[in-house]
């Protein structure tokens, strides 16, 4: 067995206030992930390079993928290799000189070279429990082999500092037996990485079924460093609700929407696909509601859809070949969101609807506000360009400046100096269904790069 080489990327940890992620040397880390569930199983190495290069260029810093994928994960990958002997997770197949796990090594190493962290699911949840919600353990994983597999994969990637471990995989864990399997896998990973059951040197979360939150099953467990939620799919996903409900749980832990409304997805009773604007709106709602980052998705990319391809089936409305979908407008717009958040001291940021003194709107018009606890800035997201009134009397300093940030192109329109006021009305530059804007007000003594976009 050949473990992945040491990564120069710093390991990630939870911030001191338990609301955000930072590097181990204290640098704030805003999670901006892409969903690539079938990446490891479906793509060749040349295709892996195409995907990772594109995602790094778009401003993503995390890629979420799966070692044992949902679709065909127990069968041959793009090179004809299987992960296990006789489909037994306790016996990974490492007989060949270039086997299934060598390809996994390649993905992780190439991601690191592109400056990307890997949110790695050791397995998709269907291989533990087939139903999304009932928690009946009826897959190939059991408590016994889950720990053995966890030790294997943890030891293999113990030196890969760009891995964030994500258990689950679109499955709830409401039963003791299902919880026991995930506990065993977490324990195995910890032992594989550190040589003992020590979770302090690894970062781990859980990806539940939608709409759902890991807090419902594992919030108090020592291996769960931050909560993962799934706001799920559709044309009007209120990601702020599930993020906000998880944000207020105690003890305090960071929260990220790990799966939300994929661009172009068509599911269930939908009569129209999700647009780029809807996917973007879900991202801003989730982050402004308290998320310490966000995970974007496109229905053609998570499955690596290719027309007439041998490894994909065109599920959930996929019609765009995945290489073309890489350049969907909403993908680049995730980079704009990351730049906006990183231009401000976001580790002290909190959600705060109380600063909006007018009606916050309903459905697709719902306004969200976030601000700095230190009183240095405030931001309000207006998804359709609706006007609103804002209380800034709590802000520190003697002078403030403001600008409108455009989530569609990442540019900012300066407003100039603004007063500190109990109630001041603001009207975005344009209005309409796809005319979302962010108002940013900041202490004039602070220099924020967002002004220069």
Number of helical segments? Answer: 11
The fold-level CATH name of the largest domain is TIM Barrel
Instruction: Report how far the terminal alpha carbons are from each other.
Output: 48 Å
**Strand ordering within the main sheet:** 8-7-6-5-4-12
Content-based structural category = alpha/beta
Please give the share of residues in helix.
10-25%
Name the beta content range.
Answer: 15-25%
Radius of gyration: 22 Å
Largest sheet: 6 strands, parallel
CATH class of the largest domain: Alpha Beta
- Number of distinct beta strands: 20
Mean pLDDT: 94
> Which shape, going by the Cα principal axes?
globular
Domain Putative collagen-binding: 350-441
Protein name: Collagen-binding domain of a collagenase
Domain Apiosidase-like catalytic: 15-347
